[in-house]
Amino acid sequence: MDHEMPETEEEMIRAPEGVAVALTDVAVEKVKEVIAREGLKDGGLRVSVVGGGCSGFQYNLSLDDSAREDDMVIEQGGVKLFLDPVSQQYVYGTVIDYVNSLHGAGFKFVNPNATRTCGCGSSFSA
After folding, report:
1. Digits of tens for pLDDT over the chain (126 positions)?
2. In-domain check, residue 75
3. How many CB atoms are closer than 10 A to CB 123?
4. Residue 1: inside a domain, yes or no?
């Protein structure tokens, strides 16, 4: 019985097959809190990738009132995620978690497409 065990926490966290972006249960709850605090009844979380950061690309999360015409809309646990077509190619299969550690609290991206990440956890190379 030779089972290969995942070597890192990142290898254990995977988006479900065919899902562009997924949130962990903890991240869903945190996003719900922020949306409620901001009063966005029909809004959602925009997930995008922009140039910059220490490794070439940087994740960007923002609240948006509604989806744009060309957005992919993903609903999970009562939260809507808005993902534009350009960003989709960089984050496909990514899981977004919310962590609370000694280094601070925030969203963490586990991206299977990233060839290199940086220490800050918010930028990557593809």
Report:
1. 444 434 444 445 667 777 889 999 999 999 999 999 999 888 999 999 988 766 678 889 999 999 999 999 999 999 999 999 999 998 999 999 998 877 778 898 888 877 766 554 555 454
2. yes
3. 22
4. no
Location of structure tokens 């901001």: 38
Cβ distance 72 to 20 under 8 Å? yes
Residue 53 lies in a domain: yes
| 93's tokens | 């299969």
Residues spanned by the domain of 108: 19-125
Q: Residue 38 has what DSSP assignment?
A: H
Residues 6+ apart with CB under 8 A from 7: none
Kindly state whether residue 2 falls inside one of the protein's structural domains.
Answer: no
User: What contacts 105, CB < 8 A, 6 or more positions away?
Assistant: 98, 99
Amino acid at 116: R
CATH code of the domain covering residue 31: 2.60.300.12
pLDDT at 117: 62
- Report how many domains make up the chain: 1
pTM of full prediction above 0.85 = no
The phi and psi torsions of 105 (rounded to 5 degrees) equal: -110, 150
